[in-house]
C-alpha cells in the first residue's frame, strides 16, 4: 500500500516537473518567435541549471547573429562607398579626356592650343592608367595573395626606392631629409610587398608634400620604425580614422593626384605580413609610420 502511494507521489512529482519544463520551453519558444530572428535577450521563468545553459546558449547565438548582421551591413556600406568612389574616379578623367578630344576636332585650333590639349589628354590618360593599375593591385591583394617570405634588409629596399624617385623630387623642388640608421638587421618579409609599400608611400609623399619631406628608418629593440612625413594644410585629426580606407581622400576635392587607393594598399600589405601601420598628425605634419616587428624565423612558418 505504502509502495503504491510512494510511486504515485513520485509520478505526480515527475509529471509536475515535466509540465514546468514544457511550460518553460513554450515560454522560450514564444520569445524566439516574437524576436523574428532579430537580436533578443531570451529570459527564463524558472531557476534550473540545465535550462539556464540552454537559454545562455540561445542568447549567445542571438549575439553572434547580431554581430554578423552588423559586419555584413558595414561590408555593404564599404562596398557601396568603393563603387561610388570607383565610379567617380573613372568618370572624372574619362569626361576630361572626351572633352579635350572634342576640342582637338576643331579645324581652326592653333598649334599651341593643340599641344596644350594633347598634354592634358596625356596627363589624364596616365592618371586613368594608374587608377586601373591600383584597382587591379587592390583586388589581387585582397584576394588569395601568397606571401613569399625571406630575409630582407629594409634599408636596402628603401634606399633603392628613394633613388627611383630622384627625378620626381627634383621636378617638385623637394629635397627630402633622409634619416636612416647605419646598422639595420634583416627581417623576414615579402620583398615585393615591401617594395610596393615604399613605392606607394613615397608616391603619396610626392603628391602632397609642401616642399618639406622626411623619410626615416630607425632600429628599436623589438621593431624597425619607418616614417614618411610631409607638411600638409587641409588635413584634420578626424581624417586619420579613415585615411587607410579605400577611395578615401582627406581633401574635399578629388583630383588626378589622389585616388585614395595607395595608402589602403599599404595598410593591407602591412597587416597581411603581421606588422603595424599608423597615420597621425603632428602639428601640420602628416606622418605615416610602420612598425616592422623583429620576429624569430619560426614565427613565419616555412620560408620560400
**Averaged pLDDT:** 77
SSE series: HHHEHHEEHEEHEE
Q: Strand pairing plus helix content: what structural class?
A: alpha+beta
Intertermini distance? 84 Å
| Bulk shape | elongated
Second-tier CATH architecture of the largest domain:
2-Layer Sandwich
Q: What strand order characterises the main sheet?
A: 2-4-5-7-6
Q: Give the proportion of residues in helices.
A: 55-70%
At the fold tier of CATH, the topology name of the largest domain is Heat Shock Protein 90
Q: Which stretches of 5+ consecutive residues score pLDDT under 50?
A: 252-256
Structural domain count: 3
Question: Any idea of the CATH class of the largest domain?
Answer: Alpha Beta
> Major sheet, described briefly?
5 strands, mixed
Would you count the extended β strands for me? 7
Overall description:
Residues 252-256 have low confidence and may be disordered. The protein has helices spanning 2-35, 49-104, 111-142, 154-164, 166-172, 191-208, 262-272; strands at 149-152, 177-180, 187-190, 213-219, 223-231, 276-282, 285-293. The strands form two sheets. It has a five-stranded mixed sheet with strand order 2-4-5-7-6. Strands 1-3 form a two-stranded antiparallel sheet. With 304 residues, it is of the alpha+beta class. The protein starts with a helix and ends in an 11-residue tail after the last strand. The longest helix has 56 residues, at 49-104. The radius of gyration is 31 Å and the shape is elongated. 56% of the residues lie in helices and 14% in strands. It has seven helices and seven strands. The chain has three domains: 2-72; 84-142, Signal transduction histidine kinase, dimerisation/phosphotransfer (DHp) domain (Helix Hairpins, Orthogonal Bundle), CATH 1.10.287.130; 149-300, Heat Shock Protein 90 (2-Layer Sandwich).
Amino acid at each position: 500500500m505504502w509502495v503504491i502511494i510512494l510511486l504515485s507521489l513520485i509520478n505526480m512529482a515527475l509529471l509536475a516537473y515535466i509540465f514546468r519544463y514544457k511550460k518553460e520551453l513554450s515560454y522560450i519558444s514564444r520569445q524566439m518567435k516574437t524576436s523574428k530572428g532579430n537580436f533578443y535577450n531570451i529570459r527564463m521563468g524558472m531557476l534550473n541549471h540545465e535550462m539556464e545553459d540552454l537559454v545562455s546558449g540561445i542568447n549567445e547565438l542571438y549575439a553572434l547573429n547580431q554581430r554578423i548582421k552588423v559586419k555584413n551591413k558595414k561590408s555593404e556600406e564599404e562596398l557601396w562607398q568603393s563603387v561610388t568612389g570607383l565610379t567617380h574616379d573613372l568618370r572624372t578623367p574619362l569626361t576630361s579626356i572626351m572633352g579635350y578630344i572634342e576640342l582637338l576636332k576643331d579645324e581652326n585650333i592653333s598649334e599651341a592650343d593643340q599641344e596644350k590639349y594633347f598634354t592634358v589628354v596625356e596627363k589624364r590618360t596616365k592618371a586613368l592608367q594608374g587608377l586601373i593599375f591600383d584597382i587591379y593591385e587592390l583586388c589581387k591583394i585582397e584576394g588569395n595573395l601568397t606571401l613569399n617570405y625571406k630575409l630582407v634588409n629594409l634599408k636596402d629596399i628603401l634606399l633603392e626606392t628613394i633613388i627611383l624617385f630622384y627625378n620626381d623630387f627634383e621636378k617638385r623642388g623637394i629635397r627630402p631629409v633622409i634619416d636612416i640608421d647605419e646598422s639595420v638587421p634583416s627581417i623576414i618579409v615579402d620583398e615585393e610587398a615591401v617594395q610596393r609599400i615604399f613605392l606607394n608611400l613615397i608616391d603619396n609623399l610626392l603628391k602632397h608634400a609642401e616642399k618639406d619631406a622626411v623619410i626615416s628608418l630607425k632600429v628599436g629593440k623589438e621593431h624597425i620604425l619607418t616614417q614618411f612625413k610631409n607638411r600638409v594644410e587641409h588635413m584634420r585629426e578626424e581624417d586619420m580614422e579613415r585615411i587607410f580606407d579605400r577611395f578615401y581622400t582627406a581633401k574635399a576635392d578629388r583630383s588626378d593626384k589622389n585616388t585614395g587607393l595607395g595608402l589602403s594598399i599599404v595598410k593591407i600589405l602591412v597587416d597581411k605580413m603581421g606588422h603595424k601601420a599608423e597615420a597621425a598628425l603632428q602639428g601640420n605634419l602628416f606622418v605615416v609610420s610602420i612598425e616592422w616587428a623583429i620576429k624569430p624565423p619560426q614565427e613565419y612558418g616555412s620560408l620560400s
